[in-house]
Amino acid sequence: MALAGRAALRWGARLPSPCSAAGPLCRPGWLPAARSERPYSSRDKEKLDMSTYPVESIRNFSIIAHVDHGKSTLADRLLEITVYDVYCWWLRLTEGVGLSWPGSSGVSFKGAISKTDHNKQVLDKLQVERERGITVKAQSASLFYNHEGINYLLNLIDTPGHVDFSYEVSRSLSACQGVILVVDANEGIQAQTVANFYLAFEAQLSIIPVINKIDLKNADPERVEKQIEKLFDIPRDECIRISAKQGTNVEKVLQYVIEKIPPPQCNTADPLKALVFDSTFDHYRGVIANIALFGGEIAKGQKIVSAHTKKRYEVNEVGILTPNEQPTHKLYAGQVGYLIAGMKEVTEAQIGDTLFLYKQPVEPLPGFKSAKPMVFAGMYPIDQTEYNNLKSALERLTLNDSSVTVHRDSSLALGAGWRLGFLGLLHMEVFNQRLEQEYNMSVILTAPTVPYKAVLSSAKLKKEYGKDEITIINPAQFPDKLSVSEYLEPTVLGTIVTPHEYIGKIITLCQDRRAVQKDMLYIDENRVMLKYLFPLNEIVVDFYDALKSLSSGYASFDYEDAGYQSADLIKMDILVNGNPVEELATIIHRDKAYAAGKLLCERLKETIPRQLFEIAIQAAIGKKIIARETLKAYRKNVVAKCYGGDITRRMKLLKRQAEGKRLMRKIGNVEVPRDAFIRVLKRETDK
């Protein structure tokens, strides 16, 4: 006991009495006041014994919601009221003394993170997430909680809310048995709320509806309860009203998680079967894989095999995320944690892979349905000498974001590069921002396009491609109309939730985007849910901005894939000074070509800096020019020195200047700025 006493004096904490587990722990002030004086530091790497948590005491759940409904704030509060620091302190303090963890006393110990005003977006670790105020990457954390005298291990996954990151949500749900569905008490059910509900419903997960932000002045939780009951058929008495910001009623959420969500269906006695549901790359330790155990146990020193690559590895470290990495002796069936096994290549940790013990093969888990890219864009290094560095950065970033597809590509103007597939325009912008911030790589991104299809009629092309139908992800590959019997464009089924006073404007907007109405449903007396079939290329760039602008920010939008339909498509080129700008070539519907071409030329005129010679900016279909803007030259007043005198002197000076401008136009190069390729696509009406 003397050892523990000395440790207590060194850390400045009072030692609890061994006779009464509840003793001083029940009173405030038993922990050091300052965070810097906390008894346990993650640097100490105290290993936890996870065998004390049988499968019956484990709950795996995700928090899902629409954008900005308070998922990350709720996660912060849950981290604040669950046991972690205290548990590690107790292990360290009582080492060799023989005292047991006093969870059975029914005392609720506090603090996976200290409760301070700085706890905002604790699980949003990326710089881009903190700058934009949105979650783009699902993050997990293991929480310890005592309920009715039993210690529980709660594995929480905080998910993104934007439609562009729905693949993160579907992946996270595969490691869970239930979800917390958060709905804003002020805004009510939104489009992504509906989409996320059906993701969880189809996965047959337990759903706990939580109405957040009840502290707001205009909050109307009763109206939201009616919406939940009408749309999702969940009784209103099952809804929990909370304020995540103030911490009101948050502990009740944890109690519902334990009571309503079932434990995972697996057994420690079974052979090891671990699902890799996420991974990151560390320069020193290699690949760090996030795993969910569906059977058996895993410990340091064991030999494991990847079902995908068939390679064998030795486990270097296993642990849980709390939310920082915390090593453990072992991980057991039903638990979620991380694994480091000396995987040095980014291709070795495939998301959806199954890991099993050497010489104990198992049937691989189903894994994940591969993400279907909705937007394609070319990515090229600014300088071709940076090609290998960019290749390495792309490999490591796509390891962490597996929804991005990568194909080698090359351009006469830009050199060697890649054609990347994204789930949406925001996904593309975030990916580019992460490249710059995390890997210090600046790139050229071409105009985004969607994957079209062409049904070939030319026997020569059929023989060349080996099939009758080809997918076009690069406008440079767009086949001529003479060799194609039909063009096909992708469509999506869009869901719009809006206050009823904006219906007229939104219907007009949808009709302008060639959409076909499929359904219209009043959620309550004030809100309407519209369903439209959209051509994907009409919504991918700026539809969301236009919708928010028309509805004063109140409408929400979500979409899902709806196959292909026949369309009259053409390729439109943009010429600058007579030279085609390959990055701005687009495939577009014929009816929209003139308006889009004129708008692109106007936008490009605003973006390109003026030169000493005149620049012609043109939109062309084949050899036919359909729109033109002229960027005037900087002009020196060469006749300023002429005071009176013969007119021929003035004409001579002006003629010499015109000849010089003409020569410059022939040999001058116009560089389009890097940031122009997204900006020129924004529509005039959305300013």
UniProtKB/TrEMBL annotation:
| Binding-site residues, GTP | 65-72, 158-162, 212-215
Q: Where is the Tr-type G domain?
A: 56-265
- Reactions catalysed: GTP + H2O = GDP + phosphate + H(+)
Q: Name one GO molecular function term.
A: GTP binding
Subcellular location(s): the record lists:
Mitochondrion inner membrane
- Chief location bin: mitochondrion
A Pfam family the protein falls into? GTP_EFTU
UniProt keyword terms in alphabetical order: GTP-binding, Hydrolase, Membrane, Mitochondrion, Mitochondrion inner membrane, Nucleotide-binding, Protein biosynthesis
Domain of life of the native organism: Eukaryota
Q: Name one GO biological process term.
A: translation
Assigned GO CC terms: mitochondrial inner membrane; mitochondrial matrix
Matches recorded under NCBIfam families: lepA, small_GTP
Q: Which PANTHER family match?
A: TRANSLATION FACTOR GUF1, MITOCHONDRIAL, TRANSLATION FACTOR GUF1-RELATED
Question: What is the recorded name of this protein?
Answer: GUF1 homolog, GTPase
Q: Which organism is it from?
A: Catharus ustulatus (Russet-backed thrush)
Q: Which gene encodes it?
A: GUF1
